[in-house]
């Protein structure tokens, strides 16, 4: 007997009014993701034009911190103005931030623009997951989430190319300006096709101000610490941020206003899903931070090529999501427990081959490219199912919080993953002794350390599968009761 989750198909997702809704949700996320990679690509050119090299890394730091704030506030925005105008407001904020970046005469203005961009982008990402459960039937949730998540892989290929072209000809401002009309278009499109009223789980409640402040402070602190070449400051920043997270956890458990659903810490309900999401996300985040450096220094690749090699993880994530999102529940469970082994294999091969260096020929690079793809693919195989399961298991009255939490968890993991990778690399000798020797040591210990993540995920995915099976049995029982009635 099939449940609703198993019955969806790609044809249903792209037929009739669903096609327009899918285009709108996917387009908004794609624009945000493409902007991330455009910004990263053109930033060196921006520095040459308006200065501010001392604040180079803060372009990303402030963007991520503001995105987390936006994602955490998305449920309140959705509850106050409804899906239609919430999406429009998010698009307008994102467009304003992009415009500020396009006209920025100095780095302080650029940083302000990036913060506004991040705030609007966080809204867009969180609202996209909320819209999935509001505009699609439950049987289409996994497919829609897979498609939305897959846009990051597409963006990792398209964004650097767009940014590279504008940067090469010295028109970095046009790189920002070119996406503003498209942002506005998708915002207006949402006005016509999105529902006006929010769901029962999107009613306006109080903002979790204490958690907002503490979580943002933790992200800023760990991001700041990761900028230092000193292991002492790296470790101190991570330790201090962990303390703030501990305080956040304590407040979250007692506060009437939540960032995560109430069952997020219950190992018999949502906790295994969130833990597995974190482990898998860290596999990619910690790996891809230093991939361009490793391949430029140890394998003689040019910056553009090295950047696209790092994008192989994103491509693998996308293809993994799209190829398994329509499988039956039984096959999906098999894939979920197998996926961490694929990621573990990829990390082991990278630990063996990347540190030793090579002449950079394609025969040398091929096994490493395949391994990079495998790491991302292993995450993609599981990702849309984990996110859909969170929405399916969460009670109706907390659906808004659950939707926003999917983006919040991923963004926080991204910030901490970059800091963790920097700490491991510095401890391994990236700065001291530095040079090719330091980079080689950093590559070895980074990939060796990261193998712990899929090992833990192997344990957690088995718990997830048992959770999925129990949930399926409950759904079947409910359907039997409904049919009998």
Automatic annotation (TrEMBL):
The chain crosses the membrane at residues 20-43, 55-73, 85-107, 119-136, 143-169, 175-194, 206-225, 231-251, 271-293, 305-323, 335-353, 365-388, 400-422, 442-465. GO terms for cellular component: plasma membrane. It is a multi-pass membrane protein. GO terms for molecular function: transmembrane transporter activity. InterPro entries: MFS (IPR011701), MFS_dom (IPR020846), MFS_trans_sf (IPR036259). Residues 21-469 form the Major facilitator superfamily (MFS) profile domain. SUPFAM superfamilies: MFS general substrate transporter. It holds the Pfam family MFS_1. It comes from the Bacteria. It is found in: Membrane. Keywords: Membrane, Transmembrane, Transmembrane helix. This is MFS family permease. The lineage of its organism: Bacteria, Pseudomonadati, Pseudomonadota, Alphaproteobacteria, Hyphomicrobiales.
């Amino acid at each position: 007997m099939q449940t609703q989750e198993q019955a969806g198909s790609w044809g249903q997702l792209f037929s009739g009014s669903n096609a327009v809704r899918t285009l709108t949700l996917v387009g908004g996320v794609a624009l945000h993701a493409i902007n991330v990679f455009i910004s990263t690509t053109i930033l060196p050119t921006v520095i040459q034009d308006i200065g501010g090299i001392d604040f180079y890394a803060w372009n990303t730091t402030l963007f991520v911190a503001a995105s987390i704030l936006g994602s955490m506030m998305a449920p309140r925005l959705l509850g106050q103005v409804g899906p239609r105008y919430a999406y429009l407001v998010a698009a307008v904020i994102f467009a304003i931030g992009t415009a500020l970046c396009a006209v920025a005469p100095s780095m302080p203005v650029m940083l302000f623009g990036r913060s506004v961009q991040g705030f609007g982008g966080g809204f867009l990402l969180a609202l996209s997951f909320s819209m999935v459960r509001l505009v699609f039937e439950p049987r289409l949730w996994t497919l829609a989430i897979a498609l939305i998540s897959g846009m990051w892989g597409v963006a990792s290929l398209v964004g650097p190319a767009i940014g590279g072209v504008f940067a090469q000809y010295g028109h970095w401002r046009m790189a920002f300006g070119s996406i503003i009309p498209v942002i506005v278009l998708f915002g207006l499109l949402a006005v016509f096709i999105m529902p006006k009223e929010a769901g029962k789980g999107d009613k306006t409640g109080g903002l979790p101000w204490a958690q907002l402040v503490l979580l943002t402070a933790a992200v800023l602190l760990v991001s700041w610490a990761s900028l230092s070449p000193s292991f002492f400051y790296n470790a101190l920043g991570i330790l201090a941020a962990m303390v703030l997270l501990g305080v956040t956890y304590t407040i979250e458990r007692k506060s009437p206003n939540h960032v995560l659903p109430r069952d997020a810490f219950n190992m018999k309900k949502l906790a295994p899903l969130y833990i597995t999401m974190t482990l898998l996300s860290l596999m990619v985040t910690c790996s891809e931070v230093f991939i361009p450096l490793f391949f430029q220094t140890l394998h003689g690749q040019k910056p553009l090529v090295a950047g696209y090699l790092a994008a192989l993880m994103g491509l693998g994530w996308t293809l993994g999501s799209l190829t398994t999102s329509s499988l039956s529940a039984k096959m999906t469970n098999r894939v979920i427990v197998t996926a961490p082994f694929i990621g573990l294999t990829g990390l082991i091969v990278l630990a063996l081959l990347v540190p030793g260096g090579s002449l950079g020929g394609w025969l040398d690079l091929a096994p490493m490219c395949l391994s990079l793809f495998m790491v991302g693919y292993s995450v993609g195989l599981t990702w849309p199912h984990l996110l859909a399961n969170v929405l399916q298991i969460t009670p109706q009255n907390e659906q808004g919080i659950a939707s926003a939490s999917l983006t919040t968890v991923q963004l926080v993991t991204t910030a901490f993953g970059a800091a963790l990778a920097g700490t491991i690399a510095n401890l391994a000798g990236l700065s001291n002794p530095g040079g090719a020797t330091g980079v080689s040591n950093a590559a070895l210990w980074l990939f060796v350390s990261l193998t712990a993540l899929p090992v833990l995920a192997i344990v957690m995915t088995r718990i997830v599968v048992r959770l999925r099976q129990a949930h399926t049995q409950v759904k079947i029982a409910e359907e039997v009761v409904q049919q009998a009635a």
